[in-house]
Amino acid sequence: MKPIITFDPGIKGGWAIQYSDGVIASGPMPDEGGVIDLIRGFRAGHPGGCEAYVEDVPKFTGPMVPGAYIAVLFRSMGFILGSLSAMGIRTILVTPQRWQKPLCLGTKAGAGGSAPWKRKLKCEAERRFPSVEVTLLNADALLILDFANASGRGTNDLTS
Q1: 81-136 pLDDT, tens per residue?
Q2: What is the DSSP string of 22-86?
Q3: Beta pairing, strands 14-18 & 4-8
Q4: What whole-number distance in Å separates Cα of residue 35 and Cα of residue 95?
């Protein structure tokens, strides 16, 4: 199997790793030092190559989302992208719409808002990854991993 690491860089985000032997690990988003340790350990275990999928954050979120939230989100995403690039890991950005569409779960609005939508995504991650402990924090990262496996290589390569 292709070794893949995925990140949902949100404040309440997480990560998922699929090792070359198929074993999957996942957890909540660590602090910056933890991100570096996670990526360094993943890269060291796969000297033959690996890749990363990172959720691309929205450029516009509307007037109801505070600017401070967006600043933290972009800082986290930038730190992750910089760390992956520094360690030479091929990185693919994927928008939420792109990884969520193949799930055929509808939309956030159709689910009744953010909280019901997140619960719906968590239930889908539990269904797709029955042997992994799924939480609201790591569900998106696991579903991005599922998308990465289903789609093969992405088209937005940042580290060629």
Answers
A1: 999 999 999 999 999 999 999 999 988 889 998 899 999 999 999 999 999 999 99
A2: S-EEEEE---HHHHHHHHHHHHHT-TT--EEEEEPPPS---TTS-HHHHHHHHHHHHHHHHHHHH
A3: antiparallel
A4: 21
Nearest to 25 by CA among 49, 9, 42: 42
Q: Which residues pair with 15 in a beta bridge?
A: 7, 27
The CB density around residue 102, as the number of other CB atoms within 10 Å, is 12
- pLDDT tens-digit series, residues 36-82: 999 999 998 888 889 999 999 877 666 666 667 777 888 899 999 99
- Look up the pTM and report it: 0.89
Sheet containing 90-94, strands listed edge to edge, beginning at the edge strand earlier in sequence: 24-28, 14-18, 4-8, 51-55, 90-94
Distance CA 88, CA 143 (A): 24
Using CB atoms within 10 Å of the CB of residue 151, give its burial: 0 to 12 exposed, 13 to 18 middle, 19+ buried. middle
Q: Which two tokens stand for residue 129?
A: 């990854």
User: 146: exposed, middle or buried (C-beta count within 10 Å: 0-12, 13-18, 19+)?
Assistant: buried
